Amino acid sequence: MTTIAPRVIVCADWSKRPDRRRVWLADPEARVLRRLAGQNWTVSGLTEEASRWTGFSLISFDAPVGVPSSYFAAAKRAMGADAARTFMDWLPDALDQPQFFEPVTDASRWMPQQPFFSVPGGTGSLKAFQASAEQYGVVLRRRVEEQTQGNSVFAMNLPGQVAPAAQALWSELVDARRRDLPIAVWPFDGDLGQLASRGMVVAAEIYPRAAYGTALAASLPTTSRSIAKTRGHVRVEVIHAFEKSEWLRRHEIELEGRDYALADDGDFDALLTAAALLRLTLEGRPLHECDPDPVAEGGMLCA
Asked: Contact 191/301 with Cβ under 8 angstroms?
């Protein structure tokens, strides 16, 4: 795999609410990790920020960019969008469906045109939605979500839900396309090598759990790890350990704004994902090991 060297790396802890989004930047040339000041970040705003650097720039979002292959096939049929080649080609048609983002609460009403669902309390509630989806030949999780034990992009009202953030991100990516902003989406617009050679601003998906190990391990390669990031004392312990990392010292990395990561779990995630991608870049390693699906499921950096 060709080693990719982005000129700048921007990592966003994404949320449905713009005021809850947290963004960190890694500059491989300047050897710095710093928090981006500002509020209410958007895809358009981050694209503008990344475009300040000449050459290939990477923006990563901790929200799903893709859908299960089985769902993609069923949804294209149901929506009459057979001509759509990739997830990003299909997405504008999906967003034009009047109830696409409206979650269903009754599993018997689930259908590809209305895939998001709110899981009520009680044993077996999630399985009921899975069974309804199976009637359309649909599995509700992507392969990468099964591998990382993540939730389905469509599931709401579950611990660790990603659906609201995904909805916001998808809407803004479609808006960026319609406005011809200079941003490509990996892997649907090409592999990283191709996009890097064109000097593109590239949006990609990242999952903090997949990045923690890369940012914190004594040596690479490593494995993913879980961190109880919502607990303040855990964040303090992890950030203090991170600051003592040998790779930070070896590459003479300057860390600016650490107190934000101590105080806020969104900043904590954005910092460590930026650090992981910076480390891979500086050590000449691939930014992902996964086999991305450029049609429906997408791919995940650091995984």
From this structure: no
User: Does residue 123 carry a pLDDT above 80?
Assistant: no
Query: What pLDDT is stored for residue 150 in this prediction?
Result: 86
Buried b (16+ CB within 10 A) or exposed e, 24-37: bbbbbeeeebbbbe
The CA distances from residue 213 to 145, 210, 236, 301, in Å, are 17, 7, 17, 13
**Residues 44 and 172: beta-carbon distance below 8 Å:** yes
Which of the two residues, 71 and 225, has the higher pLDDT score? 71
Residues 6+ apart with CB under 8 A from 198: 56
CA atoms within 13 A on the CB side of 249: 7
Among 72, 222, 219, 82, which Cα is nearest to 153's?
A: 72
Give tens-digit pLDDT for 236-257.
Answer: 999 999 999 999 999 999 999 9
CA distances from 98 to 71, 92, 288 (A): 18, 12, 36
CB atoms near residue 73 (< 10 Å): 17
Give alpha helix (H) positions in 198-264: 208-216, 232-243, 246-250, 258-263
Contact 87, 188 (CB under 8 A): yes
Q: Which of 162, 158, 159, 182 is nearest to 170 (CA)?
A: 162
Q: Is cis: bond before 221, omega within 30 of 0? A: yes
pLDDT level of residue 121 (50, 70, 90 thresholds): confident
CA–CA separation, 150 and 220 (whole Å): 24
- Checking if the pLDDT of 233 tops 70, the result is yes
Which element (helix H / strand E) includes 279?
A: helix 265-282
User: Is pTM, for the whole model, over 0.90?
Assistant: yes
Taking residues 1-6, report their average pLDDT: 67
Q: Which amino acid type is present at position 52?
A: R
User: Residue 26 pLDDT more than 90?
Assistant: yes
Q: Quick one: tokens of 91?
A: 């997405």
